[in-house]
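User: Please predict the structure of the protein below. I'd like the answer in structure-token form so I can feed it into my own downstream comparison script.

Assistant: Understood. Taking the following sequence of 164 residues as input:
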Amino acid sequence: MATDTEVAPAEAATPATAVAPPAIESPKDAKKDAKKDAKGKDAKKAKKGAEGDEANGDRPSIAAHPRAARGVARAKGWGGLVGFVLGGYLSLPTNTLATAGLRALIAGVVCYVAAWAGAVFLWRRLVMLEIKGREQQLLAATQAASSRRELPVPSERPRARAAS
């Protein structure tokens, strides 16, 4: 019977279980690779991305929240569409159709950006309220569970004997 430290001869002989030893790099190779990475453009992007991840890692993200992301996308779409239609309708009395179209496009872009900013503002508050509500639920559940553990188990009282 093989122990944890011993390897059975059949297991050692199979090529599927054989693992190649990891390649060992010398310190000089590691320094050369670090210099090459530091000079490359990818290193700057990776460094910038790492800083952004650290700064945003502890805060909730609107883009990561499924309902918030859909809500913001829906608001942007409707904002741009309403801005385009309203801008086009109000620009019809101008001299040319091209001018009305240009004004409609500009109004659509402006309303798109305004709707996006408003939706992000609103969803930030909603997500924070949702997080606080869940924290309160968890706190209440934790307190209820700890109070149940602290209560002593009621002991059984002896039953009164029936009078004969």
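That's the full token string. Residues 66-144 form one domain.
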